[in-house]
Amino acid sequence: MSRRSGILEFAVLGLLRESPMHGYELRKRLNTSLGIFRAFSYGTLYPCLKTLVANGWLIEEPGSGPDDTPAAPLAGRRAKIVYRLTAEGKEHFEDLLSQTGPDAYEDEHFAARFAFFGQTSRDVRMRVLEGRRSRLEERLEKMRISFARTRERLDDYTLELQRHGMESVEREVRWLNELIESERAGRDQRGSGPGDAAQQDTSGETGGLPRHRDSTRPDPSDDTAT
To answer: Where are the alpha helices (DSSP H) in 99-218?
Structure first.
């Protein structure tokens, strides 16, 4: 399985965990809620759905709503299919949510993981955020070294492009710092009372988000921030 296919499967399972959907509605959610999937077509989505069905993580059901009435055979139209997450699929998605390896820090996978932080335990969120920050700090250091070595040989426009790239990474690092500090503050607050220490590591609440957000925070799916 390619990394990009793995990200798509993760996102599909996460969205279907919220509610069953048709393929059309699912693709719309992937495009609007998770911008990293803007380029995905039905030709990419439906093979992914078929694979998830074959693995036993999804089941296909006929649409049951007023707008989902199967078309008459002579109309030459297919009945709409609703995709529903199975118990095995939910368990598989929860296993994916708990993973904090290097793939969770990479550009596109991090954006998908972040989109489902509301379903992720606090300790896992912290490890993913800290891993992402460490990865970007390494990238930023390499960019600065490269910039210092080549700035005398580059024209003004190329230099400006490199500065823009560094500023984008610096902005995301600052954003991650705020998220991490907010997560820590939320954890400390929840763990301040008797018996809270055991609960804090399994909480999936989004109490770690900063209270004051502004338009300068980077979009995790924004390619310029990576």
So the answer is: 107-115, 122-150, 156-190, 197-200
pLDDT tens for the chain, 226 residues long, are: 456 678 899 999 999 999 999 998 998 888 887 766 666 677 888 999 999 999 999 999 987 654 444 444 444 455 689 999 999 999 999 999 999 998 888 887 898 899 999 999 999 999 999 999 999 999 999 999 999 998 888 899 999 999 999 999 999 999 999 999 999 988 665 554 444 443 444 445 555 565 554 545 565 545 444 4
| pTM as predicted | 0.75
d(CA 64, CA 53): 19
Q: How far apart are CA 154 and CA 161, in angstroms?
A: 11
Q: Comparing C-alpha atoms, which of 118, 92, 126, 107 is closest to residue 12?
A: 92
